[in-house]
Amino acid sequence: MFKKFFSNNIFEIYCLEKYFGVIPEPVPSSKMIPKWFKNVKPFVDTPGTGRFGENAMTIKKCMPVLDAMSEGFIIPLQGDVTVRSSKNKKYVEVSNAPDPEFKLIEFHSLDQVGGSTWPGGETWPLKFINYWIIKTKPGWSTLFIAPLNHFDSRFTCLSGIVDTDRYRRQVNFPAIWNVPDFNGLLKSGTPLVQCIPIKRGMGDKFKIRKATNKEFEEWSNTKDIQNTRLQYYSKELRDGNR
């Protein structure tokens, strides 16, 4: 069964029948904005610190930050798992679910990441097991990255791109374990990766040059408007149909 998230149907996400309704579903990223960001006030408490005499805006009003965190969807950890690490992080153990066919975390060998010179040092890379299969429109791939601005200090999933219009199995997520002397629970539903659709063949097509006279005028006009109108980008330039 397909789980559709977007009306344009760039993505379809599905799992095997035995897991459907059992494991946590992928969630639109806009529904999993990190708690630290939600807790920030929209304006600082000190009057007169903004450009037009009002209270200065905080990061809560920064649309580029919000839009980055809202793009695509999040695949969460699909069950509770206990992790224990040694004081030097050399040894990491996990307690998977009782069902041997339902693993939540496995490991890559240290040799697979070039030995102890990789950023994780002597810690073997984790591999978060994912039971969701992603299907994209022809010509579209999926970028998998650590959820933007979530800053989970315990682990960091590595980034990758998969041609999900062709690949018909689930994608698992290698990760670095960050915390020494840890003994605790990773809860089901913990955000693992943010999945963002990308059109193949576009990322390396660019040209570097100096600005034209017209582009200089556009830059200058934009600067002048920003100096006279509050939230010019957020209210007048940003596409609000995301």
Give an overview of the whole structure:
This protein has two domains: about 1-50 and about 60-200, Deoxyuridine 5'-Triphosphate Nucleotidohydrolase, Chain A, CATH 2.70.40; about 205-240, no CATH class. The chain contains four helices and 15 strands. The chain has helices at about 35-40, 65-70, 215-225, 230-235; strands at about 1-5, 10-15, 25-30, 75, 80-85, 90-95, 105, 125-130, 135, 140-145, 155, 160, 175, 185, 190-200. The strands form four sheets. It has a five-stranded antiparallel β-sheet with strand order 3-4-15-10-12, with no helix packed on it. A four-stranded antiparallel β-sheet has the order 7-8-13-11, with no helix packed on it. The longest helix is centred in the last third of the chain and has 14 residues, at about 215-225. It starts with a strand and ends in a 5-residue tail after the last helix.
